[in-house]
Amino acid sequence: MSKIMIKNQIRSISLPSRSHPSTTGIEEALSKVKAINTTTGSSESVLMALAGLEELYHCTEEFLEMGLTQRVMLSDDGSEFMEEMLDGSLRLMDTCSVSRDLMAETHEHVRGVQSCVRRKKVAGGGGTDQLDAALSGYIGFRKNMRKEAKKLLGSLKKIDGGSCLSLGVNNGQQDEHVVAVIDAMRRVVSVSVSVLKSFLEFLSGRQSNIKSKLASVLKKKKDFHEENKNEMESLDFAICCSRDDLQNKLEEVEMSIDGFEKHLEGLFRRLIRTRASLLNIISH
User: Which of 2, 175, 188, 226 is most enclosed, with most CB atoms within 10 A?
Assistant: First the structure.
């Protein structure tokens, strides 16, 4: 049998839509998230992807409520898979929770800097010391944020959901329902990891932006920084190199933060429900 025929058989086994009606919903939600190009690093694309994850986990909740899905997960074939899903769900929840906290802290620092900028304008140029202190505090926070994002990225790499999307299809005797459930759930986790990774990379930005206040070094890279900067990077550059447009950059970042906080909160709640559904399946 040719390799092409084998791949076609695996693909047809992985998506038995008649046996699993809600798998169609998961496939559609997965396709929508995958269609979003988060590699651009823009806040719009990452926000759209996070919103797509919320919808994906809504479909996942319905999928886990199906009696057939639950029987598969409680079978001998699904026991190890359940452990994998529980571990993955916990890591995703932790990542989402810490990300929410980082956004809240960012919001606090941005508002602090904005307050100093406004007071400086009202004072007719005074209050420079306060502004410098607020900016130094923001720079220090951004460095810590980068370290935290790196830790979270490391945790995401330990999730097995995306490692073998079609694991289980090698056994010709395996029930197609088992394959369908495992395949669908692993792809949900894989896409979740991808989107959260994009978000964390958005937060991290380019390290050279705030590595120091050596504006002379950064100005040599001005042409590089003028292109493909997201809001966080633009603010970093404004702080280190030029404060002429600082207020506008702060406002842009604040708008992005509002969206991230909203969608991260929504996603976190969905992740809690999904984990609760998995635990309920085990307890029955």
Answer: 188
| Residue 122, both tokens | 């009202």
State the burial class of residue 197 (Cβ atoms within 10 Å of its Cβ: 0-12, 13-18, 19+). middle
What radius of gyration, in Å, describes the C-alpha atoms of the chain? 23
Q: pLDDT digit string (tens) for 192-208?
A: 999 999 999 998 875 54
Distance CA 99, CA 66 (A): 31
pLDDT tens readout for residues 120-166: 877 666 667 888 899 999 999 999 999 999 999 999 998 854 444 44
